Amino acid sequence: MQVSEKTYKGIPASEGIAFGTAFLFRPVDLKIPPRAAAPMEQELKRFEDACKKAGQELEALKADVAKRTDAGTAAIFEAHQLMVADPMLADSVRSHLEAGETIETAVQAASQEIAAMLASMDNAVFAAREADMRDVGRRLLRILLGIPDTSADGLKTPAIIVSQDLTPSDTTGFRPDLVLGFCTAAGGLTSHVAILARTLGLPAIVGLGEEALGNIPDGNRLILDGTRGELVVDPGPSTVDRYEEMKRKAAARLESIQTTMSREAVTADGQRVEIGANIGDADSASEAVRYGAEGVGLLRTEFLYLQYSQPPSEEQQLEAYRRVLVAMGDRPVIIRTLDIGGDKPPPYLKFDRELNPFLGWRAIRICLDDQALFKTQLRAILRAAAGKRALIMYPMISSVEELRAANALLAEARKELESAGIPHGSNLPVGIMVETPAAAMLAESLIRECDFFSLGTNDLTQYTLAVDRTNERVAALFQPLHPAVLMLIKKTIEAAHQQGKWVGMCGELAGMQKAIPILLGLGLDEFSMAARSIPEAKWLVSRFTVTRAKQIAEQALNLPTAGEIEELMKGVLNEAGGDSEK
Amino acid sequence: MQEISIVVRNKVGLHARPAALFVQIAAAHQSKITVTNGDKTGNAKSILGILALGVNQDDRITIQADGADEGEALEKLAKLVEDNFGECR
Q: What CA dihedral angle connects A298, A302, A304 and A305, to 10 degrees?
């Protein structure tokens, strides 16, 4: 019998499982005693002194946090220092003083007003800065009231911190050796406690709700599962056993992921597949290598085109591509030519007003119209490829004519470089993105005129299902595991294999655990994904034999709905120890 | 007075850390510097003013500087944005 055991659900904010007692944290009460306002210069002088003191406190805190975590995390307090010294805050404080308020009420009101303004912004990252402003306002007020910061002093033994919310100052204020994890009633994934817990490597749950908070007595036993977002109060012995088992399994899984990460991706029966990264610029290339990328399955080149008010020169592009190729060493890099459209126009391309930019003038269509622009890029890619493993890929192909026209320009660019005696790569493999249903249906003809395919599943899903996933009302219809999409993927892979060519995938689907076994079974040769998904993808590949994957793919392709395919894959991943949410 | 227009490539736009770096560089110059994003304009030396502009990835901002060191200020701020705030190395 487990009469008192209770489980609450919140938002999983930082992975891991902790066992411990609850420490109910309450920030110091900052009550402003009533008093009459002094002359304005005196009140202002106190504000300036408080700002100076706050700056010093923050400097010390920043140094301390930098030692315990990293400079990036400590920068939170650098932002706080700037807020303390901010002219907008000072102006607002001054106007409250002019209205006859004391400095304490002026600081409180000004910081709350600015926090409310930040909170009202529609971007979650900006709205989260509200917490910073409130934290800064409280720090100034505490200094003005002359109250020492003793809120964290009550923590004497290792415990799980439970609170309504935690400011960055609160979160870093505890003795690090005594904190086992955090849970808060308020907050979201981008709140500071979530970010700090992740960098400190401590489990955390946010958004538990007020009701849960009211039911956690100080000192009670807790299990905090930051991976699933579950908080168990007064767990019974069988619950403790269950979570201890989960903790053991998670640790074992992490260890096996870390060992497979640095190896080649191989199935349980020894079939080799390639797992690469999708990257958007040179800086992320070395990050991709760290995560175990065996190549770059997609180098987006748009960053070069959106950055400047002029199209990037051949030399600028050469340098950027070269940096990526050098960072990747002898690993292959697939460079996708310009993929841009009227939804995000660069200033130097004149777009007509388009009712439907995703069906409009974009990607290869622009490049074939503006041949000078395209040839500059092709020359830069060819030159960057000298002595390196670069591949070239055209986006949004929907006909054989487009592929022929692009290849003709590539041949021209190569000839120009040859006759000018400029060093460049020879025999670059040329491929196309299969991201329109037309390309998938024409796969047999297209593959005769190029070397490889890469499935762009985001666009392929959008165009096949006629769903704009940025439109909230239909976003739920965006189902990459829709049987119609899977059938096009199957057709594409079969057509290429018949001609002895290979097929990769650089859409989000390639990194989704629930899709990987199906794709393996369909014979996909290369998976390219966000770098951080690579370690788990390699691990998952190692859990399946090709025979088993083929069975799974066949089962999936026989199901009539995306819902049933998702259900099937939930079972498959459960059995393999994967995570269908990833 | 001089001005430049530039696209912010940073993944999360001008949020805490990039905004802090931006403000620190702006504050090191004498010129009056403003940033405009769409219909909002803010003081480049105020982190709150910059955050309030809500600059997202791929937004085009205009930086305007007026004063003795306006050219140098714009050059440094543009370089910071172009170098993607030295993030994700």
A: 160
**Mind listing the domains of chain B with CATH numbers?**
2-86 (3.30.1340.10)
CA distance B10 to chain A (A): 10
- Put simply, the answer to whether A79 touches B5 (Cβ < 8 Å) is no
**Using an 8 Å Cβ cutoff, are A405 and A427 in contact?**
no
CATH code given to domain A40-145 = 1.10.274.10
Q: pLDDT tens across A81-135, in order?
A: 999 999 999 999 999 999 999 999 999 999 999 999 988 887 777 777 888 899 9
- As annotated, the active-site residues of B are 15
Contact A82 B24 (CB under 8 A): yes
ipTM: 0.87
Cβ contact (<8 Å) for B51 and A118?
yes
Count the residues in chain B: 89
Query: Which residues does chain A have within 8 Å of residue B87's beta carbon, measured at their own beta carbons?
Result: 283
Q: Which of A80, A96, A192, A482 is catalytic?
A: A192
Name A221's bridge partners.
A21
Contact B54 A126 (CB under 8 A): yes
Q: Quick one: A262-576 is in which CATH superfamily?
A: Phosphoenolpyruvate-binding domains (3.20.20.60)
Listed residue (A300, A315, A314) closest to A363, CA to CA: A300
Question: CA of A76, closest CA in chain B: separation in Å?
Answer: 7
d(CA A507, CA A529): 7
Within chain A, all domains assigned CATH 3.50.30.10 are found at 6-27+151-255
Judging by beta carbons within 10 Å of its beta carbon (0-12, 13-18, 19+), is residue A175 exposed, middle or buried? Answer: exposed
Instruction: Give strand ranges (E) for B29-81.
Output: 32-37, 40-43, 60-66
CB B36 within 8 A of CB B65: no
Q: Where in chain A is the domain with CATH 3.20.20.60?
A: 262-576
Which of A24, A32, A47, A59 is closest to A147 using CA atoms? Answer: A32
Its CATH class, for the domain covering A6-27+151-255, is alpha beta
d(CA B12, nearest CA chain A) in Å = 7
Catalytically annotated residue among A183, A367, A450, A506: A506
Q: Which pLDDT tens digit goes with each residue over A231-253?
A: 999 999 999 999 999 999 888 87
Asked if residues A493 and A523 have their Cβ atoms less than 8 Å apart, the reply is yes
List the Cα angle A472/A473/A474 in 5-degree steps.
Answer: 95
Instruction: Tell me the whole-structure pTM to 2 decimals.
Output: 0.61
CB A433 within 8 A of CB A456: yes
A302: left (phi over 0), alpha (psi -120 to 50) or beta: alpha
